[in-house]
Amino acid sequence: MVDPITVEHISVSYDGNEVVKDISFSFKASSLIGVLGPNGAGKSTLMKAMLGLIHKDCGSVKLGSKSIDEMRKQIAYVPQRSNIDWSFPIVVKDTVLLGTYPKVGLLRRPKKADKEWAMECLKQVGMEEFANRQISELSGGQQQRVFLARALAQKADYFFLDEPFVGIDVSSEEVIIDILRKLKEAGKIVFVVHHDLSKVKNYFDDLVLINKELIDAGPVNKVFQAENMTKAYNRQFMFDGLEVSM
Question: Is the Cβ–Cβ distance between 125 and 182 less than 8 Å?
Answer without folding.
Answer: no
